[in-house]
Design goal:
There is one protein chain. By secondary structure, this protein is α/β, with parallel strands linked by helices. Helix content is 40%, strand content 16%. The strands form four sheets. Strands 1-9-10-8-7 form a five-stranded mixed β-sheet. Helix 3 runs parallel beside helix 4 and helix 9 packs parallel to helix 11.
């Protein structure tokens, strides 16, 4: 692997690429199946996130599972694109990028066709489902498949050891997990720090039976009126989540770094129904004396060179 230099634009002190994996997560499904057929309540939440971002002149980056593009109604995605946000590939069926290369080729090619046929767009960015400790380092054939399918860069490396360290270790992830190029030339932008799924449903899960019971009875359905927080999480999980993300923003600002978090609209729909996290982060960045650039992953890749 070789380092990849990231040159921020003039006047920018740090960059934060907000990325959302839009899947109907298997961790919330009664049958454990993850797919991209987004329920209407979650479509509305995604548009609400866009409203918040636009109030700060920010564009969001979404990664969409291809089988969701086979739905009849894709107006919400077309609206997201029309408003200047980006939608890119998350494979067809949430297939890990480290599996069989031939199956991966079929997945990516199929999703590419759906992007062009249903959205009139070409996806140039790829988020790897699940995240992998060594990224694609041990899978050169898979790297080549990804390149052959038209992707110059990928985001799939995820440090699964975060919980084994003190809290500061996760805050400082953007200084360790820097972008790099695999021997094939494919560029990796690692996911840096905690994902919301891990934060709320693993680190701050305090009632596993309640989580399992909710999944079986209510998973992949709209939450009831008056929903304030998931019953399986610690009561302070959302406040701690906001504090954690603001701390990472401060760290990358101090160090002049780029930060690539991985969030999910479904997780925030369940754990942050009043949409506190996104405006808190954007307000925090907007208040910095120098510019903290909140951007898309495509913006970041344009700032890189070998």
């Amino acid at each position: 692997m070789r380092p990849v230099a990231l040159r921020l634009p003039d006047g920018v002190r740090c960059a934060i690429a907000l990325t959302y994996d839009t899947d109907m997560a298997g961790g919330y499904a009664p049958d454990g199946t993850c797919h991209g057929r987004t329920m209407p309540a979650l479509q509305e939440h995604m548009l609400r996130l866009c409203d918040t971002a636009e109030a700060f002149a920010v564009s969001l980056q979404f990664f969409q599972i291809g089988n969701g593009l086979e739905e009849d109604d894709l107006d919400y995605l077309r609206e997201i694109l029309r408003r200047g946000h980006l939608v890119d590939s998350h494979t067809y069926s949430h297939m890990p990028l480290i599996g069989d290369p031939d199956a991966l080729r079929d997945e990516l090619a199929r999703t590419n066709r759906l992007f062009e046929q249903r959205l009139g767009r070409r996806s140039t960015a790829l988020r790897g489902p699940g995240g992998y400790q060594r990224g694609l380092l041990d899978h050169p054939a898979n790297q080549q498949v990804i390149l052959d399918c038209g992707f110059r860069w990928v985001s799939c490396r995820y440090d699964a050891t975060l919980q084994d360290h003190d809290p500061r270790y996760a805050v400082e992830a953007p200084a360790r997990d820097l972008p790099y190029a695999y021997p094939t030339g494919l560029v990796e932008f690692p996911i840096q720090g905690y994902s919301d799924r891990v934060w709320f449903d693993t680190v701050h899960c305090v009632d596993q039976p309640a989580y399992a019971a909710w999944r079986a009875a209510h998973g992949h359905r709209p939450v009831p009126s008056g929903w304030r927080r998931a019953p399986w999480t610690h009561p302070e999980a959302l406040d701690r989540w906001i504090s954690y993300n603001l701390a990472v923003a401060d760290f990358v600002y101090q160090r002049r770094l780029a930060w690539v978090p991985c969030w999910h609209p479904y997780s925030h729909y369940l754990h942050d129904p009043e949409n506190r996290m996104l405006p808190a982060l954007l307000e925090h960045c907007a208040a910095k004396p120098e510019r903290a650039w909140v951007c898309t992953m495509r913006d970041l890749v344009e700032m890189t060179s070998p």
